[in-house]
TrEMBL record:
ATP binds at residues 39-46. The lineage of its organism: Bacteria, Bacillati, Cyanobacteriota, Cyanophyceae, Leptolyngbyales. It catalyses: Couples ATP hydrolysis with the unwinding of duplex DNA by translocating in the 3'-5' direction; ATP + H2O = ADP + phosphate + H(+). InterPro entries: DExx_box_DNA_helicase_dom_sf (IPR013986), DNA_helicase_UvrD-like_C (IPR014017), DNA_helicase_UvrD/REP (IPR000212), P-loop_NTPase (IPR027417), UvrD-like_ATP-bd (IPR014016). GO terms for molecular function: 3'-5' DNA helicase activity; ATP binding; ATP hydrolysis activity; DNA binding. This is DNA 3'-5' helicase. Its EC number is 5.6.2.4. The keyword rRNA-binding does not apply. Keywords: ATP-binding, DNA-binding, Helicase, Hydrolase, Isomerase, Nucleotide-binding.
Length: 773
């Protein structure tokens, strides 16, 4: 019996290995030690990793006490990977408890909570900070810092060109307290903490910064300010018994600093396989390296397999992840002959891969992102004809890659809709997606697609399903938007509450974006100006005033629970958002039956908004709903990562957004033409990116330039991710006339296309003309 199983198993193992393409087999053949796999889009990273994991588990006879640990970035990716490994193990008749799949935070939390004495983390006494609580905490730490550092605060207020005028002082104070300093704190705390740098170390680093000494630039000693904010934050966390996401990693590392605990975990973990490795921060990598080390021999090679694509790193401008770390790991591995480049991909038609490759090469050569090339130089290659993937490198639809320059954005959507409709009519099983750079573009498209009269194309009657992912997400904002409105109604004279409300109006496109500090600094004068006050003059400000006073009137005219639907109408909610608001109102009314007051409603809403919970990886959180056949999905380029469709539309590819420019909002320019959070981030990264010797920390202006380069590089990588989602048709366009910013879609300008695209198209045209007919 046992022999029969062993023989079956051997056959199945061979079959699994043979189901892989050449690059993937390096994962199947892994016997131990470190391995870096740098893969191109569509190479089949997850497929290769799942097979490699199953083979390693059987080969090394792993079990519940000695497991393979697989780590990936998101919960949905973790669920997918787990399902794939389970499928292989079932076919091998091998126990499923021989491996575990975690997200990085899930892994850290498991280690920390199983060893509460060492980690200092017990979920009975500590609470995980939710994003909403985090915002409030940051505001408090800013207020405390201001109170303790009046001189520095004063210097920031004075910035440049300050004449001491009172209204201007109030405006600057509001901008500093509610925008600049909270953003500085958020960026720096996350950046420093996820690199294992405590506040004191940041303060030390601040001392080593080269100061900017020019006549018209004051550098405000930004890292010292940042270190002060960080220190306040840490004090507040411990006073309130809270932990944040970075603390989870730190506390897991604290556990592993203990010899006995470390040995326990290292014995339990046979090896670590990490997917999406380009997205990890230094501290996260340290955690994985510690687990992958031999329990008895610290000098033995790490059993660590890291798979990723540095060219798809698209989180580096809003998280501390940066492809530099994975690139460094790959370079080190290359020196030891332990780097595998998986460059064959079966996802797309040849011409789509050629377009992506051309874009990559052009961008690297253009120098647009400074001296550091945005991309690792690797080209996507087609797979050989005998590849195991069915229908690999499928035939293109039409030319496979198209680029249009319609006169307007409306015309762009019309063209897109006509094309989508024709494709669906011809082949209703195609999957299609429209990828946008920001939600507002998605909303603009969705509205037009649901308005056949204006558009002149009726997509809806054809059976093609339109799925706007952003619209589903907007629903989840309903409770917090209602909370903001009720808090304003409760205390309309608070500048902070008024400003939060105005922000919601801008986000919901009820008012144009403008300097909200100007409106919010003196609420009473703004809403009910007396004879001596000067009321707002711009149409945008007057519209804001009408909406605010309308809400205040409603408080006196409506019973509390009718405030919610009224607020929904004020925000211009659509049918489904209104239905969500109604449901929320019903829940509030039920929960507060005994105490039917505004105060009680606010309290209940705060609880609802604050109760985002941690969920296990196990939930069936799959992405399949985004890629259904016969469906046209609208989603952001960021969300599209890891997914693919037969047809991908990229409608608004303008230079203004890709690569775009880091810019400073008008109301913040009193400090100078740079952004403090971005400068601080670049300064910290100069330190954390240095591999050995301490690196010099750039002065403010150099750091600002580096931040701009980072943003440019990332936008091009995002375009690369978007282009490589297409299997058979990549449809791109950039209208001649388009909104200067999408917060105001009616304000049109003549905009040039993303500079890489003309090159890509002329290259493709040239190759086509050279092909034999
Ligand atoms: N060896 C293989 N045999 C059959 N199908 C495969 C194989 N390798 C990959 N595929 C298929 O190719 C597609 C892409 O694979 P996968 O999602 O693993 O790629 P990826 O490298 O993670 O892509 P990206 O990084 O661009 O998101 C999937 O549909 C997968 O089923």
């Amino acid at each position: 019996m046992a022999e029969a199983i062993a023989a079956d198993r051997a056959t199945t193992l061979t079959e699994i290995r043979e189901s892989l393409r050449a690059g993937q087999r390096s994962l199947a053949d892994w016997q131990g030690g470190p391995l870096a796999v740098s893969a191109v889009p569509g190479a089949g990273k997850s497929t290769g990793m799942a097979a490699g994991a199953a083979i390693a588990i059987v080969r090394h006879e792993l079990n519940a006490k000695r497991q393979l640990v697989l780590v990936t970035f998101t919960r949905s990716a973790a669920a997918n990977l787990k399902a794939k490994v389970q499928r292989h193990l079932r076919s091998l008749q091998y126990p499923l408890n021989s491996f575990v799949v975690y997200t990085l935070h899930g892994l850290a939390l498991t280690i920390a909570t199983r060893n509460p004495d060492l980690s200092g983390i017990s979920l009975d006494t500590l609470t995980l900070l939710t994003p909403t609580q985090n915002n409030r905490l940051i505001r408090t730490c800013v207020e405390r810092w201001l109170a303790e550092n009046p001189d520095r605060y004063q210097r920031l207020i004075e910035g440049r060109q300050f004449d001491g005028e009172e209204t201007e002082r109030l405006r600057r104070q509001s901008t500093l307290r509610t925008e600049i300093l909270p953003s500085l704190a958020t960026t720096v705390i996350h950046e420093a903490k996820s690199s294992g740098m405590p506040p004191a170390e940041l303060a030390q680093l601040a001392a080593s910064v080269t100061r900017t000494l020019t006549d018209d630039v004051e550098d405000y000693d930004v890292l010292t300010v940042a270190a002060g904010l960080y220190e306040q934050y840490q004090t507040l966390l411990s006073q309130r018994h809270l932990i944040d996401y970075d603390d989870m990693i730190l506390s897991a590392l604290r556990v592993l600093a203990d010899d006995e605990a470390r040995r326990f975990w290292q014995n339990r973990v046979f090896a670590v396989f990490e997917d999406e490795a380009q997205d990890s921060s230094p501290l996260q990598t340290q955690l994985l390296e510690t687990l992958a080390r031999d329990a008895e021999d610290a000098t033995a090679p790490l059993n660590l397999v890291r798979v990723g694509d540095p060219n798809q790193a698209i989180n580096s401008t809003f998280t501390p992840a940066d492809p530099v770390f994975f690139n460094q790991f790959c370079d080190r591995a290359q020196h030891q002959n332990r780097l595998v480049v998986m460059d064959q991909a079966g996802r797309s038609s040849g011409v789509i891969m050629a377009a992506a490759n051309t874009m990559l090469t052009w961008v690297n050569q253009s120098g647009l992102a400074g001296t550091v090339a945005p991309f690792r130089s690797q080209a996507i290659q087609p797979v050989p004809v005998d590849d195991p993937q069915p229908d690999a490198n499928p035939a293109p639809i039409g030319g496979g890659v198209e680029f249009y320059r319609p006169p307007t954005v409306m015309e762009t959507v019309r063209l897109l809709a006509q094309r989508s409709l024709a494709l669906h009519t011809e082949n209703p099983t195609l999957s299609q997606a429209i990828l946008v750079r920001e939600h507002r573009q998605g909303r603009f498209i969705n509205q037009l697609l649901h308005d056949p009269e204006t558009l002149g194309v009726d997509l809806l009657s054809t059976g093609l399903q339109i799925y706007d992912v952003g619209e589903q997400e907007r629903q989840t904002h309903v409770p917090s938007e209602m909370l903001t409105i009720l808090q304003f109604i409760e205390r309309p004279h608070s500048p902070d509450r008024l400003k939060s409300l105005l922000r919601v109006f801008v986000d919901r496109q009820r008012i144009a974006s403008q300097d909200l500090n100007l409106l919010a600094k003196q609420p009473e004068q703004f809403m009910y100006p007396g004879p001596l006050d000067s009321p707002p003059t711009t149409e945008a400000a007057q519209q804001a005033r009408r909406l605010c006073t309308g809400l205040l009137r409603s408080r006196f005219e409506l019973p509390p629970y009718h405030l919610i639907p009224f607020a929904g109408l004020t925000l211009g909610y659509n049918q489904s958002e209104l239905a969500t608001a109604d449901k929320l109102a019903a829940r509030l009314s039920q929960q507060n039956r005994e105490d039917n007051t505004l105060r009680a409603m606010i309290q209940t809403l705060q609880e609802i908004v604050g109760s985002e919970r941690f969920e296990a990886v196990d939930t069936e959180d799959r992405d399949d709903r985004y890629t259904r056949r016969g469906q046209l999905t609208i989603l952001t380029m960021h969300k599209a990562k890891g997914l693919d469709w037969d047809v991908v539309f990229l409608p608004f590819l303008h230079e203004r957004t890709i690569p775009g420019n880091l810019w400073v909002p008008q109301q913040q320019t009193f400090l100078g033409d740079f952004s403090l959070p971005e400068v601080a981030r670049a300064q910290i990264r100069a330190h954390t990116h240095a591999e050995s010797t301490p690196a010099p920390i750039p002065d403010l202006l150099t750091a600002w330039q580096q931040a701009k380069n980072l943003k440019t590089a990332e936008e091009f990588r995002l375009l690369y991710v978007a282009m490589t989602r297409a299997k058979r048709l990549l449809w791109m366009s950039a209208a001649h006339s388009a909104p200067f910013t999408w917060s105001n879609p009616d304000n049109l300008s003549d905009l040039p296309p993303c500079p890489a695209l003309p090159t890509v198209m002329s290259y493709l045209a040239e190759t086509r003309s050279r092909q034999p007919r």
